[in-house]
Design a protein that fits this description.
- The chain is mainly beta and 204 residues long.
- Helices cover 10% and strands 59% of the residues.
- The strands form two sheets. A seven-stranded antiparallel sheet has the order 10-11-12-9-8-7-13.
- The two termini are 30 Å apart.
- Residues 200-204 have low confidence and may be disordered.
Length: 204
């Protein structure tokens, strides 16, 4: 198995617990992983998730040989691992329209509405579908915070379309606006992880 364009991975321990996130470098068939934390609890055949911008999100069993990173001072990552993918367990293709259901209540904020509560019904790397009692207009910008894979992001989204669910409750299809650097990758990892773990998938 050869990765194509992969920069990040998640390493799991016993019971599927996340041990750490790492950076990935791919050169032909060579796969190197870099970690800031000591991977002392990572032994034997390991479960690793890769996010590859060409292949998609891959859940794999890997054999990794760890050592201290000789270039630590330049890269700020104390450990590296030479990785061999033994088996690909699952793959979710990279598609911007893959979204997963959430049903997550959130505090939103906009210049027009102020602070208000709503529910994120589903999410993708491109945007969210929310429901709320607040009547919003098309192209209205709002923001909210969410922790996807270990980092809390402040995200902005703009309403594209609306539908009236009841007389005083509305649904809004929204796209993300001006995503901070690194946020799209974390959102994609969150979406793919949730789909792999739960099987909940909504294609639109």
């Amino acid at each position: 198995m050869v990765l194509k364009e992969c920069e990040r991975c998640i390493l799991y321990g016993p019971g599927g617990k996340i041990l750490m996130k790492g950076r990935v470098e791919v050169a032909g068939e060579s796969i190197m992983l870099y970690f800031e934390k000591n991977p002392e609890f990572a032994k034997g055949k390991l479960l690793v998730d890769f996010f590859d911008t060409q292949l998609g999100y891959l859940r794999t069993f890997c054999e990794i040989t760890f050592r201290k990173n000789p270039n630590y001072l330049q890269r700020k990552e104390a450990w590296e691992g030479r990785c061999k993918i033994l088996k690909v367990l699952e793959t979710v293709q990279r598609q911007k329209d893959i979204r997963v259901k959430l049903k997550l209540e959130k505090l939103f904020s906009s210049a027009k509405q102020g602070d208000f509560y709503g529910v994120i019904e589903n999410i993708s790397a491109g945007g969210v579908y929310i429901t709320t009692s607040k009547p919003m207009s098309k192209n209205e910008l709002f923001s909210f915070y969410h922790n996807f894979v270990g980092k809390n992001w402040k995200l902005q989204a703009v309403t594209l379309w609306a539908k009236r669910i009841t007389d005083d409750y509305f649904g809004y299809g929204c796209r993300f606006a001006d995503l901070p650097e690194g946020a799209e990758m974390d959102i994609r990892q969150f979406v793919y992880q949730r789909q792999l773990h739960t099987g909940e998938l909504d294609i639109r």
